[in-house]
Specification:
The chain is of the alpha/beta class. 16% of the residues lie in helices and 29% in strands. GO terms for molecular function: butyrate-acetoacetate CoA-transferase activity.
Amino acid sequence: MELDKNQVREVIAKRVALELKDGDVVNLGIGLPTMVPNYLKPDVHVMLQSENGMIGMGGAPAAGEEDPLWINAGGGAITAVPEAATFDSATSFGIIRGGHVDVSILGALQVDEAGDLANWIIPGKLAPGMGGAMDLLVGTRKVILAMTHTAKGKAKILKKCTLPLTAAGQVDLIITELCVIEVRKGQGLYVTEIRDGVTREEIEAATEATLHYVDDVKPMRQ
């Protein structure tokens, strides 16, 4: 079944949410990753960390109730949960670099067979820099990519990234609207789940990288 843009984002966000455990400290990249908390199970409560200086980030405020002093790392308006803590960005990056963030959920322009990620610059467009993504990739215990499988029909899961890298060899899991892929260090990419109605042939046609399949590939959980 062909999915529209909103359905694609929903499928990915729902599946990513299943990777989070109660009590996790989680950093969300901009865009699709910010949808993930909407699909957490009722018994799973996570603490959202923002690299500009917060743990305990809440959802977006109601229209008209935005406070310019309360923003996330992307400049979007936020709220805070009751147990939130705020601090300077140096402390925030100390938390990240010290390995205290359990999971980072990021988007991707390209990812490759070695778990290299490129997600900060588009050729021909002005980019302000990679922000905290480099630190998050290296400092976080688990890195999940929440990404569409292709962009304008072109593969994003490649044999080797062609764009400037954000970090090398740090991606653990890739979740797209087609499947779930584990990055196994030194072994390559292993498909563990496939969305109902999607074939291996369709996945491989949309992927440049070499894919392996675990013995017991399961339907994609939602």
